[in-house]
Amino acid sequence: MEIEDLMTDIEKKKTQIIAFNKQFEELRKAMSTSVQQIERIEQNAESKVRQLSEFMKALDEESTNKVTITKTLSPAGVGDKKDMVRKLSTFGWTAEEISQRVNLDINTIETILSLPG
How many domains would you assign to the chain? Predict the structure, then answer.
């Protein structure tokens, strides 16, 4: 009877070990996926920083030519917005990103980009 109890305990422990191994494997996979997501986020962030750097450099160059671009422009500054849309596009910004930055709807951005410069 004592041996049977020991065998039962061993089987329970074996079942627990298998369950722990399965949980460990699931956690390992989740961590691997998280690492991949973090790497993609890091690459995206690096790209955005490069774009911002290029944009800031362009703004500095334009400021020497007395061109002022503000976050919100009056209707008189629409030409400046068109220039900004084109400039951001040359730096690889998507129409959605430009739309958010210059406060114009995406259709307007796409129209500006489709017109000869």
Answer: 2
3-state secondary structure 73-104: CCHHHHHHHHHHHHHHHHCCCCHHHHHHHHCC
Domain containing 35 equals: 1-48
Tens of pLDDT along 52-98?
888 877 776 665 554 444 434 344 445 678 888 988 888 888 999 89
- Distance CA(61)–CA(91), nearest Å, equals 15
Whether the Cβ atoms of residue 93 and residue 51 lie closer than 8 Å to each other? yes
The number of angstroms, rounded, from the C-alpha of 39 to the middle of its chain's C-alpha atoms is: 11
Question: Whole-model pTM?
Answer: 0.44
